[in-house]
């Protein structure tokens, strides 16, 4: 029983991390039809910015308490700024040229890890998290790492904020309308380009937050961390349905749990294969994923 509880908690924590990465990717891919291979680079930027700040390089920030919270805010802000810069400088001129979009974002996804390696080295760096989050707590005979709760809480906050933004705010409605009929929204005097930049900013913030709290899960940061997580984020997006935040949340939980249980009860490494099999089986039954709408 203790093993099942531990695997479930770990799977939920991993699923929460996948959701944070996939939420922004789902919005950008599903709503704007932009296949952003540089999304993982935004996660790496957020992770390294948080690591840099929490290591004592930012006044007021540090590895404990409010100092760590400030480091997370700083890392998320840096990732958001990088996402806006990416959209303005790289994506916006290529909205009508999808093949060039792919080439450009792949180039960015390769350039950012190389730049991080050049500055801080290719080796993983220990992540300076609060001591309170490095411990465990008891649940049904299992010892659960506290940082798993942080990941789950962050994912729930992001899920609630996205649903509220797209369902209850004017900017969210503008984005939805712009996706459905860009020409009509533009004719009404609304600058759809600003709305799409906002979507990129939100996606970048979610990815950077994933990098910031993902350091707690892995205990370290390295330049290729975002690239490896991006693969599973794409699986989550396709499984959940293009543009569906709720679908991405359900898919992320399923992927995290399947991966953890398969890795434990089968040979090591088969968890990744199990995720691919899950995706293939779902697409045979529901080609559009769990849901194909923004909800």
UniProtKB/TrEMBL annotation:
The keyword Amino-acid biosynthesis does not apply. Its main location: membrane. This is Branched-chain amino acid ABC transporter permease. Pfam families: BPD_transp_2 (PF02653). It is found in: Cell membrane. It is a multi-pass membrane protein. Keywords: Amino-acid transport, Cell membrane, Membrane, Transmembrane, Transmembrane helix, Transport. It comes from the Bacteria.
């Amino acid at each position: 029983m203790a093993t099942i509880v531990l695997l479930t908690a770990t799977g939920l924590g991993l699923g929460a991390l996948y959701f944070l990465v996939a939420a922004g990717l789902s919005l950008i891919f599903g709503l704007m039809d932009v296949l952003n291979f540089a999304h993982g680079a935004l996660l790496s930027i957020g992770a390294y910015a948080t690591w840099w700040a929490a290591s004592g390089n930012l006044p007021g920030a540090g590895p404990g308490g409010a100092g760590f919270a400030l480091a997370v805010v700083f890392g998320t802000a840096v990732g958001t700024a990088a996402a806006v810069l990416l959209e303005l400088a790289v994506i916006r001129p290529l909205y009508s040229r999808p093949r060039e979009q792919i080439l450009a974002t792949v180039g960015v996804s390769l350039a950012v890890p190389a730049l991080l390696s050049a500055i801080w080295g290719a080796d993983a760096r220990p992540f300076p998290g609060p001591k309170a989050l490095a411990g465990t707590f008891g649940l049904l005979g299992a010892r659960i790492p506290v940082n798993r709760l942080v990941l789950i809480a962050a994912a729930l906050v992001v899920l609630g904020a996205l649903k509220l933004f797209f369902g209850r705010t004017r900017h969210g409605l503008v984005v939805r309308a712009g996706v459905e009929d860009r020409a009509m929204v533009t004719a009404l005097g609304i600058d759809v380009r600003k709305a799409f930049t906002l979507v990129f900013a939100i996606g970048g913030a979610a990815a950077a937050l994933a990098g910031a709290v993902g350091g707690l899960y892995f205990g370290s940061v390295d330049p290729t961390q975002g690239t490896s997580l991006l693969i599973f984020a794409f699986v989550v997006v396709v499984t959940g349905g293009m543009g569906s935040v709720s679908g991405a949340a359900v898919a992320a939980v399923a992927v995290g749990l399947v991966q953890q249980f398969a890795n434990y009860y089968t040979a090591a490494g088969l968890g990744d294969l199990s995720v691919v099999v899950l995706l293939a089986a779902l697409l045979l039954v529901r080609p559009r994923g769990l849901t194909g709408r923004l909800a």
